[in-house]
Amino acid sequence: MALEFGLSPDQESISDLFSSFLAKECPTEVVREAEPLGHSPMLWTALQGFDAPGMGLPVEAGGGGAALADLVVVAEALGRAAAPVPLVEHLVASRLHPEAAIVSGDLIATIALHPADGSGLWRLAPAGAVANVVIGIDGDETVAVHAAPPGVAPANHACAPIADRSARLGDRVVLGPASAFDRALAEWRMLTASALVGVATAALDIGLAYVREREQFGRTIGSYQAIQHGLADFPALIDGARFLAHKAAWAGDNGRVGAAGVIDMDEGEITEHCALASMAFLQAGEAAAVCTDRSLHYHGGYGFSKEYDIQLYFRRARGWANILGDPARERLRLADMLWPPPGSTAGVGAGRAITAGRA
Amino acid sequence: MALEFGLSPDQESISDLFSSFLAKECPTEVVREAEPLGHSPMLWTALQGFDAPGMGLPVEAGGGGAALADLVVVAEALGRAAAPVPLVEHLVASRLHPEAAIVSGDLIATIALHPADGSGLWRLAPAGAVANVVIGIDGDETVAVHAAPPGVAPANHACAPIADRSARLGDRVVLGPASAFDRALAEWRMLTASALVGVATAALDIGLAYVREREQFGRTIGSYQAIQHGLADFPALIDGARFLAHKAAWAGDNGRVGAAGVIDMDEGEITEHCALASMAFLQAGEAAAVCTDRSLHYHGGYGFSKEYDIQLYFRRARGWANILGDPARERLRLADMLWPPPGSTAGVGAGRAITAGRA
Amino acid sequence: MDFSLSDEHLELRRQMREIMTATVTAEVIDETHRSGTNHAPGFIEALGDAGILARAMPGPGQDPVDMWLVSSEAEKFGAPFDAGGMATSIAGVLAQLGTDEQRRRITPGLLSGRELVCFGLTEPDGGSDLPRIKTRAVRNETDDGWIINGAKMWTTMGHVADWVFLLARSDASAGRYGGFTTFIIPMSTPGITVDPVWTMGTERSNATFYDDVRVGDECLVGEAHEGWRTMGIMLAFERGLGNTGALTPLLRRFAQWATESGTIDDPLVRDHMAQLAIEAQVAELLTQRTVWTIATGEGPGTEGSVAKVYATEAYQRAARWAQATAGADGLLRFHEAGAAADGWIDYDVRHSTPQTLQGGTSEINRNNIAERQFGLPRMR
Amino acid sequence: MDFSLSDEHLELRRQMREIMTATVTAEVIDETHRSGTNHAPGFIEALGDAGILARAMPGPGQDPVDMWLVSSEAEKFGAPFDAGGMATSIAGVLAQLGTDEQRRRITPGLLSGRELVCFGLTEPDGGSDLPRIKTRAVRNETDDGWIINGAKMWTTMGHVADWVFLLARSDASAGRYGGFTTFIIPMSTPGITVDPVWTMGTERSNATFYDDVRVGDECLVGEAHEGWRTMGIMLAFERGLGNTGALTPLLRRFAQWATESGTIDDPLVRDHMAQLAIEAQVAELLTQRTVWTIATGEGPGTEGSVAKVYATEAYQRAARWAQATAGADGLLRFHEAGAAADGWIDYDVRHSTPQTLQGGTSEINRNNIAERQFGLPRMR
Predict the structure, then answer these.
(1) Which of A179, C176, C304, C372 has the largest CB neighbor count within 10 A?
(2) A9-180: what fold?
(3) C331: nearest CB among A157, A215, A305
């Protein structure tokens, strides 16, 4: 075991598989055509063609046996293509509730990010508009509810298939206590982080291509230092988020969850899955926001026009991240894991682990 | 009455007077020589020479009858010269407690920015190291305490003559209830804002002079777009802070204090003195911090060396602003004036006034 | 310095507010969002009827405070004034450079709010590099007219406008800034076609095409081949006076949502709201200073650039922060249940995005400040 | 990907921590602040004795993880490793380009921690534009030696160093990157003088002057006139591996103050602390990635620039935020009553300030990323 920042052979082949699949099946015309709902049933069916919906489950459960380290690679490819399929949510939900029809992808599953309110409503669940099964917290239980999806989403910034869903109406199964849901939320943060890394990477690629071509005042605009320096900030933002997501996956795959992980702020050592997933999510949200902002800006007016692709990414950078809520709240939650308030049990399930160190 | 952004003839002549006085009496050698204490008795004596210490008091009280609109001009000139004299504090204190020896400047007066603690200590009062009279809050009273100044300051970032002072030991006069101190604090914020505007302006001037001269790669560094664009942000920061300080002065001079001023967030109309003073202080702190940061950075290593002037301003940008406390706390205080919490009486003495408007 | 408004200006403000309350209803705003056309005819016509468009016209002898007050009040209220801004700009240009015949034939329609004008300036390849335009105006010696061919981009209001103010190259041999001619042409002239360009802001802009468009000398604005001079006058009217007041309505709408949702008690949110209130004040003060420099005849220097960069970037940051803070509800559009500030939060993010581009990009404005205010070397 | 350290590396880390706890006491640190010389002889010598300096030497056949771990642990602890970093860099250069005689005569002293080396590179007019240096090395035909004249700036440790690694122009006719020669010279050589340069960070740097300094060929590093190649090797050792870990001790010290003062309960402060924790992790991951690219032989590309810009700017922002948050107490220096984090908050602001300049300014590094990673046109 030693520091290794390259993709493993498994990761490489998964990356190649999904990248070439999406390049072929999901050019941006597909993304545009799927708006405003933000879901392409055809693309979903194509994903079922190579068993993608069940890949996150063990082979014993009929799944593909992919590790989290593989799933972050998939999520990044999806984000890079702005793919209008709820695979991130489905992968997370399927690991919590491996029903055969979910494993196969015949039923689409998702998770509700916040507990149901007093009336049993899960507010704006990601993929809620198209999911046949929604898993989330209701009271002190984690439940899965089978019900026909509404098939329409409220009009929204990202054209994402979000929708309110009921935690009580439909075919309802109790999966466990509310705490059983913690891992799913951490995995959703981690995979959404990777998807946002994909969005940011696409923004960089699109931006670079544009500034290399576009001329103003007799020079390509990519030759101006103001634009060069604005773009030069992207790699740290993107790579930082990517490595955090991969580190979260590595921590999860190696059982470094909760007390089995390290959170040592004195030495700056963090190997705990849930804390890393939260960090990855926040950093990726920032990376996607900044990279799409600037890339769009460097397009001049064209970035704002619907004809160009950058606005697709600009809107998803916000939509995919903001669905969880105010990032400041997420940072406070992270702070409770890193510096637990006295007497607290800190964090969501994970929280504080081994803390060595100096005062 | 109509919008007027030029200096009045009075302001012009005060600006000229102080600028030429400081150019002559306070080159940066004087600033350096006054370190680490941050006080030049000679410069103070020279200021007494033209009755500067008492200028903020009415002629009837033996003062110079200057308006707040004049004092902000003075404070900006002081900041621009990084002048090692506590004139801002003295002007504020003198208006609260116009003793003859204070009006003449034979005694230096200052204010304590925070109420005395349980043991009667005023923590780190600005000019506390050199002031003969300190005015501040102790319990529910505003008191003035005459006592010999320590003459030394704890070593600090800005080489400012700050020091702890006692609210109880010495010759103690009760000036009124604690609320009598509110105006003084607002005036201190406003004048410190102007001093910080002076600091930021000096940072711009010094930075521009440097980047016009310094060559790298065969060009002056001021020809690089990254540096041009970094500097191009300065005018908005500086002018914004300057106008806010002037508007606070205008509001104060015209009696627009507390309920006599307007705070209408629906229309974005604010003419209340204390709210404007707080805004000016925050904006000026930001302007001084950003402008000195960047100007120092554009100096390369030389900015960091004690030989160059920019480090003098860099340190004062922080020292003069941070002495009040965390700017986030100040913003929360401002927020309470702008959007009073239900049932609160809001703000320090000033607070909410007329609020017209739509919902 | 003096920060008070005169009684005449206070009266104008009162009038503006009265007219807006009467004419810019929620239904009117809804219609602009539905159609993508950011124009409320009843509002602009009422301004025309009250003589306010005439007061808001820029140029010598006009009160720049009037001009600022009108656009600022509209912006703070959230009333669509783009059409009024364009009409008054062109009326101002005609007042300075137009013929008496044009001022009789065209100006009254513009200042009544009944006739609209769009701008045919930027081209697909052009952007910030305006002198690079390719639209050609060729002198037609047989009838003393002109034949115009070319294409323009971002012709906002082009599909509802009566007139187009058009910049064309009339003498390609005359160097970078020579050989331009400006025209004002009825949009009904044969050969002009308008294609919609839909934007992320849900606003409609247009691409306009000019195929052998034949016009006479009555359409010339200023002298032939002296179009760069006309542009100089017009761009000076534009810079730094509009679109710097958006923080105020944003903050009003955000505070509305924050109050309803209880978020207004959150210190993290209050901290940020106070910062935005400061930025709104700074944006207004910087804009008022620009107005004052125009009034004193000192302007326009770089004050407009300073205000424009600051205000539009602050607005953009604020909108993006507001959206993130509102979480999922900040993603929802107008009329969706639970949408933060009834959908305005989402709208502001989309609407603020091109503000740092149109009317001079932040980069061009920063170049301008560095070169003209600081005297640093011009590097383009 | 794998984010774990091998057992050997964990053992090295344990050893480092043990040595630092024993040798880098509060008194030792105080002495560095008092003297302005950021060097703790007992610590560096202990590293030498434990063979750690030899492990931390960069170059082919060496483990870059060792090199990173040593400097990173020192930085996290707050132990002054600058002298060790310079010594191991030059030992690494000698390992690649030195003579056997130099490796016998010079290297053991450097790797024992007993002899220090300073860098004579930048000049008063030079800065980022290194090839512009004016120090001349002229071949002295009578004795096969060299005569060196010139002045160097920012010769940190120059007043305590045994050696100077010097870059001089040896052939002014050889174009921008030709005609340089690098030397390693005893500081005791006649003609070398050292003047202190005091800094805002209270650290002492130096200006060094070379007046007819005569040295023989035994002082050459690499071939004569091939100095740019030496510099390439040395700068590659430098970039992106040191000075990217400062957020961790800053955050530890800030948290200490925040806990003592009760500020740690303030949600505004917690929000920001969480952000800094993320930035510290990102800085570490970006640095580890640089290490990995070196280990795999892929580096150094622009990874070092990416890590360096990010980490130093994050550190600077963090220090300035921490100081503002601590208010008046954040202004107080070491040993003053009530000073926030015993004075470290004030120190970090001053200390972080030159980090975005030394070892490659942020501007130069951003140019580098744009040109080398993105392939955008080089505009210098």
Answers:
(1) C304
(2) Butyryl-Coa Dehydrogenase, subunit A; domain 1 (1.10.540)
(3) A157
